[in-house]
Every structure is written in C-alpha cells, then in structure tokens.
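Batch job 17 of 40 flagged for manual review because the log was empty.
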Amino acid sequence: MKIKEILSQNKILPLATICSESDARNITTKLIEAQCPILEITLRDERVRSILHVFQEYSGFTAGLGTIRTIDDIDLAINNNFTFGITPGFSPNLCSYAQSKNFLIIPGIQSASEIMQASEMGYSILKFFPAELSGGAKKLKALQSVFPDISFIPTGGVNKNNLKSYLELENVICAGSSDFVSKDMLATGEWEDIVLNIQNIKKDLI
C-alpha cells in the first residue's frame, strides 16, 4: 500500500518522542490494537536514535521519522527501514538527497512560495507546520483552489477539538498531532489510555 493510501485510510498521524525500547514496543502494540498502525517518531531527544530499530520488528506497521533536519537524519531513517521521513521546513538540499536515495520525504511548508518550490521538485504531499500558528484550516481552505494537486498534513496545534475542521477539507489527507499519544500517557505508561484515546478520536470522525 502506498503512503498516500495509508495516510488517507488512517486520517490521523500520531506523533511521539520515544526514548526507550520498551516504550517503542508498547506504543507500537497499542497503536496496532487501536487500528491505527502508523506513527511519526520525532527526533527531539538524542535517545530516540538508539531505539529506532525496534519498529522493524512489526510487520504491517508504518513508521515515519519526524523532525528530520540533516542528511544524517535521512540516513538514520533509511538504515532503520523507515517508510517515510518528515522535515519541519522545506529544504531543497534535503529533498534532493532523499530523492537520490529513493527515500520518501514529506517536506514541511508554511507559504505558497514553499508549496510551489516543493511541487517543482515533484512533491504532492506536504506537512503544513505549525498549522494553527500559520493560519489553520482557513489558510488551507484558501490554498485549495490554487493547489488542487497538493495534499496536506496539518501538524502543530492540532487536537481533538479542531481536528474535524482540518479533515473536512478536500486537500487534507491526514492530520498529525502529539495529543493523540500525549507525553503524560508515555510518562505514566498508561498504554490502555492510548488505545481508548485513538479509538474515541476515530469514532468521532465517523
């Protein structure tokens, strides 16, 4: 299944900074149980780098590496068999390198100019970040008629209260948020709460 189909099917993209192998196994198991077998693991802690191999153990689970800022980060994702990577902003250098390695990058953008540059490089799925601070659902709606061939993943300030306003837009393929798997849930090891939270969010979207 192609990444566009996976994102469209799941509708939500949980984000988490995972620093231990046990947490990685627990969260992966619980996301599969919640029928949301996808996760963006963010590089916001150096400890994350040493546990990425764990996600290879789960067939049918789609792991993406987020907060990619360097070529080394792309190599890290490739070496750990990640399906895709996400950058917080648009970098032609990183995009070109990823293309040379045949690795899927979803570039982060804020402006129409960045969308045009990314489109010129062949990208049709883009991360809109930080979504709420950059104009939110209203801005994405305004961009829809100008860029009908571009699909967005809004991230940054997205939560269960404003999620529907994004997913109702034709040009939003999926929405990302760290609220789906919160820091508190990870810190306390409330793994069943993760399942319930994801299930309730998906139920509200029906």
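Reviewer: the log was empty due to a logging misconfiguration, but the result itself is present. The chain has nine helices and nine strands. Unflagging and moving on to job 18.
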